[in-house]
Automatic annotation (TrEMBL):
Pfam families: MFS_1. It is a multi-pass membrane protein. The lineage of its organism: Bacteria, Bacillati, Bacillota, Clostridia, Eubacteriales. PROSITE patterns: MFS. The keyword Cell membrane applies. This is MFS transporter. Keywords: Cell membrane, Membrane, Transmembrane, Transmembrane helix, Transport.
Length: 481
């Protein structure tokens, strides 16, 4: 059979491979959120290094997604997808043997590169393999696998960190990686080399990386070392200087990394901004709630992981419901309704979070944030993909993923900084080590206030997202310019 012609049988064969990739990446992200205190304790990481254990992966993964999207068009999706499995698996294996935090951060960069190779090519491989009339089924099942992995990730991280040790939070990736490499080599058909290779926008990638790095550096370090520290000022300088240069370069280059002309399409622009703001509002909820219970209640990683399950349960329930309703109601209404549900959950956390808050109330709040996000994502993604020409959908999917990752990175950096900034220097690392229960009640109150500030920042992002979502107008499908 000619594998260049999509067929349903081959489509599901490819889906079986991409499911392993989605599981590998999503399980890794969720498991580390819960197991972070155990990892920080082993490496004796300070507050800044603790934050960068998370941010290093998120930052490099965000920037590399767009770059690798172009690479896959040049070198072939199959080759780079399998390379992603190999890099991610090897990095996960080596991390478990490390005892130096600097080495850990380097290996996290490699993990990010492997994860970017996998995520960049997952949707493209499915799109290439499925016949058009069955593509929606393949993509929806891919979302289901991703949701299941997000549900299992925190549980797996808590279970492994509690019963087997922090190393297994990374080592349990290895069997998935090996299975993905072997099965991918068998199932994925070789691809023909493209006849035309569009040049890589090297300068655009460099400017994007440095400007985004500057923002993250300034936001994450400001609450730790002070807002006037040289490293913070350098970060702001990179962002302020190179951000406009990146925009100017992308407007002038013949082969931009990001086609800024697409943002002249109002539904597309507003839906992307809403996606970015939603990512800022939802992405760090699992991390903060897990740290809250480990630090203030001194729960084990496993116990804390069970406390964050309502987030993903909400997403799993809302996503298919939103998909069904999308046939009757416009994306603008459904996406906005999802953001409103997320805001309700954050309002509960901002105004009612305390040392004695009952878990059922926290559970309702984080269920609302998860349900709202699940309700938002499907129609908003559809709005983005239908509002631009079909010939640009590969680039558009990369931009969408990058913006959502940017929201995740900024949300993580800002949230942890707001908490740390509210604590005296002697306590800044307490939130990562799970030792807050051993400090005076007055300091615990300051710790809780920091959490409330973080959730308030997410709430502000959600309110902005609601207005942005409403401004998108009516979406019309575009096949050509």
């Amino acid at each position: 059979m000619d594998r260049d012609i999509p067929s349903l049988r081959y489509g599901w064969l490819v889906f079986s491979v991409t499911s392993l990739g989605v599981m590998l990446v999503q399980l890794n992200i969720g498991s580390l959120y819960v197991a972070l205190p155990a990892v920080v304790a082993h490496f004796h990481a300070g507050p800044a290094a603790s934050i960068w254990i998370l941010l290093t992966y998120q930052l490099f993964n965000t920037v590399l997604i767009l770059l690798f999207g172009k690479f896959s068009d040049i070198f072939g999706r199959r080759q780079l997808y399998l390379a992603g499995f190999l890099v991610f698996t090897a990095a996960s294996l080596v991390i478990g043997f490390l005892d130096n935090v600097a080495s850990l951060l380097v290996l996290r960069v490699l993990q990010a590169a492997g994860g970017a190779l996998i995520i960049t090519n997952t949707t493209a491989l499915i799109t290439d393999a499925f016949p058009r009339e069955h593509l929606q089924s393949g993509l929806s099942m891919n979302v289901l696998v991703s949701s299941a992995a997000q549900l299992l990730g925190p549980i797996a991280g808590g279970l492994l960190a509690t019963l087997a040790g922090w190393q297994w939070v990374f080592w349990f990736n290895v069997p998935f990686g090996i299975a993905g490499i072997v099965w991918g080599m068998v199932a994925l058909a070789p691809q023909r080399k493209p006849s035309y290779r569009e040049p890589i926008d090297g300068w655009g990638n460099l400017f994007a990386f440095l400007s985004l790095s500057g923002i993250i550096l300034a936001v994450s370090e400001g609450g730790i070392v002070g807002w006037g520290a040289p490293v913070v000022l350098v970060g702001w300088a990179l962002a302020v200087v190179l951000g406009p240069i990146f925009i100017l370069h992308e407007r002038r280059t013949a082969h931009p990394m990001v086609d800024l002309a697409l943002f002249n399409i109002r539904p597309y622009a507003m839906a992307n901004v809403a996606a970015f703001l939603n990512a800022m509002a939802r992405s760090t909820v699992v991390l903060l709630v897990a740290l809250f219970y480990q630090s203030l209640y001194h729960l084990s990683p496993l116990q804390a992981s069970l406390r964050v399950i309502p987030v993903t349960v909400g997403m799993v329930i809302a996503a298919p419901l939103s998909g069904r309703l999308a046939r009757r109601y416009p994306a603008r209404i459904l996406s906005t309704a999802g953001l409103v549900a997320t805001m309700l959950g954050l309002i509960i956390l901002v105004f009612l979070l305390s040392l004695n808050i009952p878990f059922w109330l926290v559970g309702i709040a984080i269920f609302c944030t998860g349900f709202g996000s699940g309700f938002f994502l499907t129609p908003n993604t559809s709005s983005i993909m239908l509002s631009i020409p079909a010939s640009h959908r590969g680039m558009v999917n990369g931009i969408r993923s990058m913006l959502q990752n940017m929201g995740l990175v900024l949300s993580t950096a800002l949230s942890l900084t707001l908490i740390a900034n509210n604590l005296p220097p002697r306590l800044k690392n307490a939130m990562f080590l799970g030792t807050v229960t051993r400090i005076p009640l007055t300091d615990i109150a300051r710790f809780i206030d920091g959490y409330r500030y973080a959730f308030a920042a997410m709430g502000i992002a959600t309110v902005l997202g609601i207005f942005t979502s409403l401004m998108r107008g009516k979406v019309q499908s575009r096949s050509t310019f």
